[in-house]
Amino acid sequence: MLTVNAYAATSATEPLVPTTIERRDVGPHDVLIDIKFAGICHSDIHTARGDWGPASYPLVPGHEIAGIVSEIGSAVTKHAVGDRVGVGCMVNSCRECVNCLQGEEQFCVAGNTGTYGAMDRDGTVTQGGYSTHVVVTEDFVVRIPDALALDVAAPLLCAGITTYSPLNHWGAGPGKKVAIVGLGGLGHVAVKIAHAMGAEVTVLSQSLKKQEDGLRLGADHYYATNDPSTFDQLAGSFDLILNTVSAKSDLDAYLSLLAVGGAMVNVGAPAEPLSLNVFSLIFGRRSYAGSLIGGIRETQEMLDFCAEHELGAEIEVIPAEKINDAYERVLASDVRYRFVIDTATLG
């Protein structure tokens, strides 16, 4: 076993604290990664604070991991020592069900193994990327292209694939009008990706305070949803709406913005249930859907796409001692647009 430095939540109400954790020995198909950067995702906060149900403490969050391979198992063929690699939201799956066999491991029938807070194959609870090292089976490690700096690549392992997958699945591209709801950690990456795909991109945000940023990131239009005239002006406009907000929304109002046959997809995950009037769907043959990250194959595709288009997250790099401050700033929407931990500061 390898003992490594980490930052952990000890309860739903206490700040995260420095600690040490044990990583399993490198098995034949395992890769040991020297973590360089770990992104902070809103999901980390929800999980650490028990918003999505009871968690197992101590809990080391972090599923936006970028680093360098420092050791490989005897049977590893996909990676070599010195490779630039990443790990996202899952570290294993059954590999046998219909979804896994189709490259959709995130929808594993038996449930994928989350990067933290999940039961690992050896019966222990997985611990995430707020640490100096991690051991992961080679099939769940992706290659980070040289064109992407590791710090800006880290958030792509969650925010990137979470937005790329639905944009890809629902056909964002030339001739398509795409709206992104919210310009935060997910939304700012969604704008960049949708723009790079060739879509006409509109940001729908509560106010116009981030308008300059939105247009700089690739949006063609920017509207404030706190102005009721926005919904009248844009009625029936969009082929696809991607809702990145993790808060309760007026779904009927947003669905009214879809063209006939359009789809609204939720990737934000509010803690409370949402409701809608079915007539918002019936009148216009509209669809309301959800999307969960992406499979390993699509995650690699996303990283290659982002490298090709020189597209990374907008980040603020912080030392580990600022993690708790960063959590509060995320909750206050005081970040543009993603915090990334420099894991060298873990000691």
Any overview of this molecule?
The chain has about 350 residues and is of the alpha/beta class. It has two domains: about 1-160 and about 315-345, Quinone Oxidoreductase, Chain A, domain 1; about 160-290, Rossmann fold (3-Layer(aba) Sandwich), CATH 3.40.50.720. The chain has eleven helices and 17 strands. Strands 3, 4, 5, 8, 9, 16 and 17 form a seven-stranded mixed β-sheet that branches. It has a six-stranded parallel β-sheet with strand order 12-11-10-13-14-15, covered by helices on one side. Strands 1-2 form a two-stranded antiparallel ribbon. Strand 11, helix 6 (about 210-215) and strand 12 form a beta-alpha-beta unit. Its cofactor is Zn(2+).
Estimate what percentage of residues fall within beta strands: 25-35%
CATH topology type of the largest domain? Quinone Oxidoreductase, Chain A, domain 1
When the domains are counted, the total is 2
Order of helices and strands, N to C? EEEHEEEHEEEHHEHEHEHEHEHEHEHE
Mean pLDDT over all positions: 96
Q: Please, what is the CATH homologous superfamily of the largest domain?
A: Medium-chain alcohol dehydrogenases, catalytic domain
Class per helix and strand makeup: alpha/beta
Largest sheet: 7 strands, mixed
Write down the overall geometry: globular
Number of strands: 17
Rounded to the nearest angstrom, the radius of gyration is 20 Å
